[in-house]
C-alpha cells in the first residue's frame, strides 16, 4: 500500500531560531526578549554565551539536519511530502517560508513545533506566532494545522533511552549506580501554573517521561534506578520564582548526599543547541567536576532514527485523522495523547491573563 500524507501538501518545521554570526547576536536577543522584561545584564550574559561560539548557535544546522532526516524517512516510506523550515526569532522566518510554500502551491501545511512539551513557551507562543504569520500573508496564507506535543511519543522516549544508556556506558563502572539527572528548561512558576489549567502541566509532562525512562532503564540494567528532574537556563527578574532546583544547585546537593556519578539527560531539548552546549556542557559539567562527581551528558534525540520515525508516525496519524479515518495515537506513560486542538485557555503566559492575541490550532481565549 502506498502511503500518502493527504490532505497535507507540506510539512513546516517551526523552531526557535538562533544567530549565525557575531553581528546577529544582539538583534536575535532583541527579537527573543521583546516585551519580556529581561534585565540588560542577563542579556549581556547570554550574549557572551553566544560569543564564546563566535556568535553562531548550533541550532540552525541541527534543524537543517532534522529537515533532511525527515525528508529521508518520508522518502523511504514512499510518502511525497516536502519539508520546509521557519523560525520564530531568526532567519528563515516562518512568514517568509510560508510565503514561498504558498507560491509553490501549498494550500494545507502541517506544522511540527520543535518543543516536545506544552507550556506558553513551547506551545501557545508558537501558536500566536503562526497566527501572526498567517494574518500578515492574508489571502496567500496556506491553512495551517499543528502537531500535538510529542513528549510521550514512543520514538522520542526510545531515542532518549538509547542516548542515556550510551552516556551511562562511558562512566566508570557503567550506568549501574548512576543517578539520572533529567534536565529541562526552567520556566516561571506562573507559566507552569498556567500550563496545568486544562491538562497535565509542563512539569507533570516531564515527570511522566522520567517515570517511563526510569522503568525502561530498570528493565535494561536489572537494578535500581535513582533519578530526579532539575532545570537549567532560568532568566527573567531574579525575584520572580521559576521552576527549581537549578541543575547546578541540584548536582551540588547530590554530591553532598554521597552521589558519585551521574548521567545528565537533557530530555527537555531535542538538539544540542546553546542551552545544552553552554548551560549543561560548560556550567553543569564544571559543577560536577568541582564536586568530585563523574558526569556523562546524554545526547539529545537529534536525528536518531527512533525519534525521526516516531515523528513521521505522528504526521501520518494526524493526516489520517484529517481524512476522517480513526487512527490510534500510540503514547507512553500515563497521560495519553494531547488533543490536536489546544483547549480554550490552555498554556497562557499567566493563569487568567487574557491577552486577546490570536492563536492557531485552538480557540483565541
Ligand atoms: C521552555 C523553553 C524552551 C524549551 C522548548 C524548546 O526547545 O523550544 C526554550 C528553548 C530555547 N530557548 C532559546 C533561547 C533563549 N530563550 C530565552 C528566554 C526564555 N526561554 C524560555 C523558555 C524556553 N525556551 C523562557 C520562559 C524565557 C524567558 C523569556 C520568555 O518568556 O521568552 C532567551 C533570552 C535570554 C535569556 O533570558 O536566557 C534566549 C536567547 C533557544 C535557542 C538556543 C540556541 O540559540 O541554540 C531555545 C531552543
Ligand atoms: Fe528559551
TrEMBL record:
Enzyme class: lyase
InterPro entries for this protein: Ferrochelatase, Ferrochelatase_C, Ferrochelatase_N
Gene Ontology molecular function terms on file: ferrochelatase activity; metal ion binding
Pathway in which the depicted protein is active: Porphyrin-containing compound metabolism; protoheme biosynthesis
GO biological process, alphabetically ordered: heme biosynthetic process
EC number: 4.99.1.9
Protein name according to UniProt: Coproporphyrin III ferrochelatase
Lineage: Bacteria, Bacillati, Actinomycetota, Actinomycetes, Micrococcales
Encoding gene (name): cpfC
